[in-house]
Design brief:
By secondary structure, the protein is of the alpha+beta class. The protein contains three helices and eight strands, in the order βαββββββαβα. It has helices at residues 14-20, 122-130, 138-168, and strands spanning 2-11, 35-39, 49-56, 59-72, 78-85, 90-102, 105-117, 133-134. The protein has an eight-stranded mixed β-sheet with strand order 1-7-6-5-4-3-2-8, covered by helices on one side. The longest helix is centred in the last third of the chain and has 31 residues, at 138-168. The chain is globular.
């Protein structure tokens, strides 16, 4: 069994942080240590999928987790997400993601447990995860969000132009 835990701080409210975490980073700098990131679904509720990726050099491992429970704090400034394995190269996977926001700073607590690797030796995976770090890549996610907005705006413009052309044809 391999365990991974990390705490990080992000500038932004809970709402802002959760919103940006819905976009996969557009680019990541990969060094000699592995990086791990996850992408939240549009709606954070039981049954939705969280997509996880570990990048270690040229090796990429991806899997999905299914949200099993979502718990909100009394002030709605805290959210805890419990996750179990959906599909992936592990026999088992559980995670708990807790976001706690105070005065424009959101603290992210991530705890993960991996059981049995199907595609590679668990000892090797353990060594990789011992030096791995969770990356939130906020700027890279903001770039992705901007690109999605540009594409959506272009689609709406093209749809409007097509509707306008069909209305004036004939």
């Amino acid at each position: 069994m391999v365990q991974f835990s990390q705490t990080s701080w992000q500038i932004g409210t809970l709402t802002d942080t959760l919103d940006i975490m819905r976009y996969a980073p557009m680019n990541l700098s990969i060094g000699k240590n592995a990086v791990l990131y996850y992408t939240l679904p549009k709606s954070i509720e039981s049954g939705e999928f969280i997509r996880y990726t570990i990048m270690a050099g040229f090796r990429k491992v991806s899997w999905t987790g299914i949200i099993g429970a979502v718990t909100y704090g009394k002030t709605k400034n805290v959210i805890e997400i419990a996750v179990r394995l959906g599909e992936g190269p592990f026999r088992g996977f559980t995670a708990k993601h807790t976001f706690d926001s105070v005065k424009g700073i959101t603290t992210c607590f991530d705890d993960m447990t991996f059981q049995g690797c199907k595609d590679f030796a668990e000892d090797t995976f353990s060594i990789v995860m011992a030096s791995a770090s969770m990356v939130y890549a906020i700027q890279a996610r903001e770039m992705a969000r901007e690109q999605v907005a540009i594409v959506e705006a272009k689609k709406k413009t093209q749809a409007f132009e097509a509707l306008d052309q069909s209305a004036t044809a004939g």
